[in-house]
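During the practical work, I selected for study one protein's amino acid sequence and its backbone structure tokens, as given directly below:
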Amino acid sequence: MDTDWQALKSELEKLIGTDVPARNRSGPRRVVAVDDEGVWLSRRGKPQPKPVPRRDLLWAWTSGGSKQRSFSVTLIRAVLAARPPRPHEPPPQTTVTVTVFERSNAVRVAVRHRAAGRCEVCRKRAPFETADHVPFLEVHHLTWLADGGLDTVENAVAACPNCHRELHLGASSKTLTEKARRALGRKLAAQSHA
């Protein structure tokens, strides 16, 4: 007894007593038995069950049977439809070591205060307010800390989420960073003269 047939047989046995729709107009067939020969089906008004051979069922099971127009394909589809949904499995895990810079909360607060609720890159208003009623802006370091940048208000801008993603991932991130650096320079110069 091969393992493919054993696996399929146990699935088919779950259909005993159920009706399987026919592809033609002859009406549904009831699964009455499953044995080593195949599946035995009866039709309403016909006392003698007829078999669907094991080899046909195995062929439909292993090949998907999409090209064959036989009752074995219909049975396999019924088996698949009767299966309970499989629970989601958690994805595999990987352990990583990450270096995180300890950033100054004072710099974060000062940069967001300086922005006054507007993105310092695109100049649009923050997209929403947080639960604390503070405009949501993310602090971005123009020279990344990982590249030797300092955690200072002179090296950071308040950016809306779209601009922040573009500063990190956009095709024109270098150009956008330089634009933000020039705008920040002008803003800091104006503040120092005021």
